[in-house]
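Weekly modeling sync, notes
Attendees: AB, CL, MP (scribe)

Item 1: holo prediction request
CL wants a bound-state model with adenosine-5'-diphosphate before deciding which constructs to order. AB pointed out that an apo prediction alone won't tell us much about the pocket. Agreed to run with the ligand included and paste results into these notes for async review.

Input as submitted:
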Amino acid sequence: MTTGATVWLTGLPSAGKTTIAYALAERLRAQGRRVEVLDGDEIREFLSAGLGFSREDRHTNVQRIGFVAELLASHGVLALVPVIAPYTDSREAVRKRHQQQGTGYVEVHVATPVEVCSVRDVKGLYAKQAAGELTGLTGVDDPYEIPADPDLRIETDGRTVEESASVLHALLVEKGLTI
Ligand code: ADP
C-alpha cells in the first residue's frame, strides 16, 4: 500500500492554507495519488458542529480533525489539513498521536504576515473585526502561536499559488509521499 501521511497547513486566516491545499491536491490527484482535503469550514459544519472559538473548543476541533486525518493517512491517503490550529499544544498532541500510530505527519506553516492577510481578507473577517462586529479573530485579538520548528515554512507574499504549492510538493517528493 502507498504510504499515507497527514500534512497540516497551519497559519492565519487568509494566509493561503486552503488555496495551497487544493492546488496541491489537484496536482497529486492528476498523478493518481489518493488525496483528501479536510477543509476547516466544512468540518466545522459537520464533525465539529456546535463548537465555538474558545481555546478549549479550538483545541477539541483540532483533535477531532487530527483523529480523522490520522485514520485516513493510516490507510494510505495523503490527508491535507488547511486548518488554523493556533495553539502549539494542540498541534503537538496531533503530532504525538501520529507518532504513536506510526503514521507520517508533516507540519507546514503558511507564514503570511497579518498585514497581508488582512488585505486579502477572503471571508471579510478582518473587516468585521475592525468594525467591531466580531471578536476573537486569530492573529488580531486571539492568539496564534507561531510554529517554532515546522517541517516547512511557506512565505506566500509576493509569490504565486503555484509557486507556493510547488515548494510543498517538492518536500513531499523528498519524503516519498507523492507516490
Ligand atoms: P486560508 O485558508 O489560509 O484562510 P485562503 O486559501 O482561503 O486562506 O485564501 C488565501 C488567499 O490568498 C486566496 O485568495 C489566494 O488566491 C491568495 N494568495 C495569493 N498568493 C498566494 C500564495 N502564494 N499562496 C496561497 N494563496 C495565495
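Recorded for review: The chain has a mean pLDDT of 96.
Action items: CL to compare against the apo run; MP to circulate these notes.
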